[in-house]
């Protein structure tokens, strides 16, 4: 089984660190976010990892080379010419992931104790096209699910913008954790081109396919996008 780590982003929320470094190399208790998440995947039996790079790409590659991939088999998906966001990044790396069904995708700047093996098992049992790790927590944006946790929409709580995939009277809002288990078949139905968000891909697919939410409310979850988040993460992740 393979995984993809999204590590190409500019990390603007982590300035000034990201003025001279990629966010993937931010340190929590002396270990980079990159190492934390590679080892997290290893604990769940995944040691084949695709990593996309753009911002200070060579620094990430140098760290991986110097540390021999932290014990994992690493393949780079190069986005040096243009950062493609999450959806575009996944589509660009599709040829590296087709031979894994399913595969895991996660943001490099999140740290969690989510039991990845359980969400993988739930995904396989449900036969969903994708299973999204979500939590009942405050966020500026929420995915919207029906009572069976099938994705039916999305909302921006700050601007009031809403996007619907399916008609339903009652929806349940959950915040996305940036971790998902994806069936390889999804890679054959990605109609968007260039730079686009994976959120738009899921909303498009949810019109005709099952995109399921996996509620892991109560787990430790830290979006390590701000300096104060790094301090908080240090209390949980060694």
Query: If you compute it from the alpha carbons, what radius of gyration comes out, rounded to the nearest whole angstrom?
Result: 17 Å
Number of helices: 7
| Structural class by helix and strand composition | alpha/beta
Overall helicity: 10-25%
What does this structure look like?
It is a single chain. The protein is an alpha/beta fold. It has a single domain (2-233), classed as Spore Coat Polysaccharide Biosynthesis Protein SpsA, Chain A, CATH 3.90.550.10. It has seven helices and 14 strands. The chain has helices at 33-43, 57-66, 85-92, 94-97, 116-126, 198-205, 227-233; strands at residues 2-6, 27-28, 31-32, 48-53, 73-78, 103-107, 110-112, 130-135, 141-145, 151-156, 162-164, 172-182, 211-215, 221-223. The strands form three sheets. Strands 1, 4, 5, 6, 8, 9, 10, 11, 12 and 13 form a ten-stranded mixed beta sheet that branches. Strands 2-3 form a two-stranded antiparallel ribbon. A hairpin with a 5-residue loop joins strand 10 (151-156) and strand 11. Helix 3 (85-92) packs across helix 6 (198-205). 44% of the residues are buried.
Secondary-structure map with pairings?
Elements: E1 2-6, E2 27-28, E3 31-32, H1 33-43, E4 48-53, H2 57-66, E5 73-78, H3 85-92, H4 94-97, E6 103-107, E7 110-112, H5 116-126, E8 130-135, E9 141-145, E10 151-156, E11 162-164, E12 172-182, H6 198-205, E13 211-215, E14 221-223, H7 227-233
Parallel strand pairs: 1-4, 1-6, 4-5, 8-13
Antiparallel strand pairs: 2-3, 6-12, 7-14, 8-12, 9-10, 9-12, 10-11
């Amino acid at each position: 089984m393979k995984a993809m780590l999204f590590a190409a982003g500019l990390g603007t929320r982590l300035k000034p660190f990201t003025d001279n470094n990629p966010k993937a190399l931010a340190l929590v208790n002396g270990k980079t976010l990159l190492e934390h998440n590679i080892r997290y995947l290893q604990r769940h039996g995944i040691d084949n990892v695709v990593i996309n790079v753009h911002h200070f790409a060579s620094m990430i590659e140098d760290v991986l080379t110097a540390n021999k991939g932290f014990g994992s088999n690493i393949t780079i998906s190069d986005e040096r010419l243009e950062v493609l966001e999450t959806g575009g990044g996944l589509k660009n790396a599709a040829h590296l992931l087709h031979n894994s069904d399913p595969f895991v995708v996660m943001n490099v700047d999140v740290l969690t104790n989510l039991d990845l093996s359980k969400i993988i098992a739930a995904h396989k049992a449900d036969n969903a096209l994708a299973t999204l790790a979500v939590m009942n927590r405050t966020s500026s944006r929420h995915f919207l699910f029906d009572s069976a946790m099938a994705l039916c929409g999305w909302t921006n709580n700050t601007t009031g913008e809403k996007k619907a995939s399916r008609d339903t009277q009652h929806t349940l809002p959950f915040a996305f954790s940036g971790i998902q288990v994806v069936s390889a078949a999804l890679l054959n139905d990605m109609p968007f081109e260039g730079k686009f968000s994976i959120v738009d891909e899921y909303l498009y697919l949810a019109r005709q396919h099952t995109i399921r939410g996996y509620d892991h409310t109560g787990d430790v979850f830290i979006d390590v996008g701000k300096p104060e988040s790094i301090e908080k993460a240090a209390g949980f992740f060694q």
